[in-house]
Amino acid sequence: MILLLLFGWLLLTLGGCDSARILCIFPVPSVSHQATFQPIAKALSLRGHDVISVTPSPLKDPTLTNLTEIDTSYTKKILLGYGFEYFMSKEVAIQNKIPKIFEMYYELAEALFQNEEFKKIYTNPDEKFDLIIAQIYISPIMLGLSVKLNAPIIGVSSMGCWIGTHYAMGNPILPSMYSEMFLPYHGELSFYERIKSTLYFLWSRYYVNLVALPKCDQISKKYLGNDIPYIGDIEKNLSALFLNSNPVLYTPRPLVPTVVPLVFIHIEPPKPLPQDIKAEMDSAKNGVVYFSLGSNVKSMNIPQRVRNLLMDVFRELPYKVLWKFEKEELPGKPSNVVIKQWLPQQDVLAHPNVKVFVSQGGLQSTEEAVDRGVPMVIIPFISDQEFNGKKLQEFGVARHIDYLNTTKQELIDSIIDVAKNPKYRENMKKLKDLLNDEPMTGIERAVWWSEYVIRHKGTRHLRSPTVDIAWYKYFLLDVVSAFVGIIILILVVLIKLFKYVKNSLTKKEKIKTK
Ligand SMILES: *[C@@H]1O[C@H](CO)[C@@H](O)[C@H](O)[C@H]1NC(C)=O
Ligand SMILES: *[C@@H]1O[C@H](CO)[C@@H](O)[C@H](O)[C@H]1NC(C)=O
Ligand SMILES: *[C@@H]1O[C@H](CO)[C@@H](O)[C@H](O)[C@H]1NC(C)=O
């Protein structure tokens, strides 16, 4: 109790600011995305700020008296309408997936702007906010609110950010080194990868500037008024950008000071397991393999062939398999497999009998595995998962499986290897220590930066000059052109001179021979 009071006192005295009004907007109705935003809204409300959160996953916690939630869970059907099979397919190029994500965002944004409760806020000229925090997955579409409500705005992503947002923040873009999070490359890129990375970069500049931003701008103006500035310019005014990515887990790269990496933001202390799950896990004397593809990739949606393969693999394992499966029945279920429609993942991973976590390698699941010290077998399907899988394999805490060409034997061997070889568990512990060795926790950092932006009414003083110069200047294309021009000029002059000398010499010859 005394400790709690002391902690509360510390929180209140550590460079705080008076109670502020904060508006949070988290459009994407995906559980794993929202899991990283809820703690931020909650922590700010516990600091005594008056927080209004527009969210599809409201906490509905009556003890959070300073948190008002506008429930937008009805937008979940929009996400479902986009069919995850498409995003999961490795045959679909990323240049086709990104436009789909933008389209989904247009629909989500319109659904939010049309929400009656939310409309009352953003159309009321008397509403005053000190800060807005808005999710940016890849689209800046909600950022016009900062102009409409005249408040500084912080962007937040549940993972890293894509190239478009890096560009808007002024982070250096180098297709040879800092590959896009949607591309599975890291470390030293091969020649072929660099070609693909460069083409992707060029495509992304074209797509953002000529297709996506004009459309976002149109929707922003439709709801917020025609006097709202161009959305691409508003994006450059972000006061900070919270990324749920950590340079240890992602490739280290230069970032402007207002990009704030967070880690372990949604991890909570383990709670007791529900009785039925606890009984299943306690009785698994050989250990448990926990299998879940997270909240976005449903076991239902993965290709039939892969699902059958997994069942064949699980059947031969000497362990009990706990499978998060969304239906009540799984035809042909092996006897050592237990299916549950929902599992408290953080608490399951804390059970001492868990040997391996077979996962899609999403960032939130990965963080939970690291925090609980459970090694992984990663079968990536979408988004940043392949990148995460390769990276974690390098850390020696996981084995990465390509579901397109894996075999039953490879999967069995991988799971047993990860379960039996203690080095995976030891490396997990090292990785956890590395990630935790920080001056403040992720949530403290998020709160500190939010209040910093409130105290200084934005971060204009930290704005990178990069965002204000034209792209051809940024890439020195004008300087390179000038050099090339001079060289061409010199060459032309030399050639002309050479011809002139040659001509005059041959003329003299002719005169002599006559
Ligand atoms: C609500 O905010 C007030 C200050 O504005 C603070 O004193 C109080 O502790 C907060 N309550 C909760 C539950 O966060
Ligand atoms: C960006 O912020 C500056 C300073 O607050 C303001 O003058 C400018 O109009 C803003 N630009 C846009 C496009 O919102
Ligand atoms: C999968 O493909 C990669 C190359 O694309 C290859 O190196 C690897 O051995 C293949 N794995 C299996 C199990 O066939």
UniProtKB/TrEMBL annotation:
PROSITE patterns: UDPGT. It catalyses: glucuronate acceptor + UDP-alpha-D-glucuronate = acceptor beta-D-glucuronoside + UDP + H(+). PANTHER family: EG:EG0003.4 PROTEIN-RELATED. Residues 1-19 form the signal peptide. The keyword Kinase does not apply. It is a single-pass membrane protein. GO terms for cellular component: membrane. It is found in: Membrane. Its EC number is 2.4.1.17. It comes from Sitophilus oryzae. Belongs to the UDP-glycosyltransferase family. SUPFAM superfamilies: UDP-Glycosyltransferase/glycogen phosphorylase. Keywords: Glycosyltransferase, Membrane, Signal, Transferase, Transmembrane, Transmembrane helix. InterPro entries: UDP-glycosyltransferase (IPR050271), UDP_glucos_trans (IPR002213), UDP_glycos_trans_CS (IPR035595). The chain crosses the membrane at residues 471-498. CDD domains: GT1_Gtf-like. This is UDP-glucuronosyltransferase. GO terms for molecular function: glucuronosyltransferase activity.
